[in-house]
Amino acid sequence: MKQVVFHQTGLPEEVLQLEEVDIPSPRPHEVRIKVTARNINPSDIMFIRGMYGITPKLPSSAGFEAVGIIDQSDKSNSIPVGTKVIFTAIGTWKEYVCVPAHMVIPSPSGLSDEVACQAFVNPLTAYGMLETSGLKEGEWVLVTAGASAYGKLVIQMAKQKGIKVACTVRRDEQKDTLYALGADMVINTEKEKLQKVILEKTGDGVNVVFDAVGGVLGARALASLKAGGKMMVFGLLSLENIPLNSGLLIFKNLKVEGFWLTTWMAGLSPEESQKAFKTVFSHLLSQKVKVDIEATYPLEQYKDALVAYEKGGRNGKILLVS
In what helix (H) or strand (E) does residue 35 lie, and over which residues does it extend? Predict the structure, then answer.
């Protein structure tokens, strides 16, 4: 089978390579999945660079999220061969993956591979952060990198709860797309002063910030919080830590906390987990929440896919398909 691997961490275009290896054999508690589609997430790039919360065991394949067909079931045949499943694993940029049977989720009927392969990480992160935030109807959330796949999902999910959404972008042409999805305020931080616009439009600031960027933008987003507000940090697209203003934290009684999907899901009860998946899948199937696809590439064309991923102004996900 074909797989995309790296033998040392570094820039994807420098360390990734395509290899031909034997198809893996599942252990008794595992199923083997013939992978049909995977999407490229920022976490995948961070993992390849050795900058993610999980340290790669080299050599390693890239990718965490995918959809595929059960090719061989586990010992108890808990999931029949031929079942289409959504799953996460370390290293999905390969043609076959073995995963513990209890960690795969049957894909809802009617969900295309292109949507199913991105139905886990971003939608559940958006859902989980909104649930954890404590935001109520009529309150404001500020989402940095609002034109990202995650940002678009938050806008759509928040609007269903009556939560007002402000977003940051870096290009004016991204504004109309986000307003069409339901954003109440879209700020081009290349041209506008974030805190100034936020205060003018809200009066006293936003209740919560969802920050995916860090760095200087993260600091400006923190300063856009109202007294008693909270920043939830879940990404570091700038690759720079947030320079925290201690005075702001003290005198405005602000809170800063991290959010990682893996940790959040580990704390859910079986009932809460089932509710989360049911809600997300229902949104995607009914198209109350939509995901965008920019382009698809065969697995062996991963280099071209990475070039497309890095392209500025991209409006949808880049997928690797088999």
Answer: strand 30-39
pLDDT in tens, 192-211: 999 999 999 999 999 999 99
Three-state DSSP at 163 gives coil
**Who's near 178: CB < 8 A, 6+ residues apart?**
146, 147, 151, 152, 155, 167, 169, 186
Residues 238-256 have pLDDT tens digits of 989 999 999 999 999 999 9
- What are the tens digits of pLDDT across the range 207-225? 999 999 999 999 999 999 9
Which domains are seen in the chain, by residue range?
2-119+292-321 (3.90.180.10), 122-263 (3.40.50.720)
Neighbour tally for 14: CB within 10 Å: 10
What's the whole-number mean pLDDT along residues 91-113?
A: 96
d(CA 151, CA 146) in angstroms, rounded, equals 4
Helix (H) or strand (E) holding 308: helix 302-310
Query: Where are any strands of DSSP class E within 60-182?
Result: 60-61, 65-72, 84-88, 96-100, 105-106, 140-143, 164-169
Pairwise CA distance, residues 78 & 28, whole Å: 11
Distances (CA, A) of 21 to 3, 87, 232: 7, 22, 41
Cα torsion angle, 287, 289, 292, 293, sign: negative
Q: 3-state class of 318 per DSSP? A: strand
H helix or E strand, kind and range, residue 266: helix 261-266
**DSSP label at 94?**
B
Its pTM stands at: 0.92
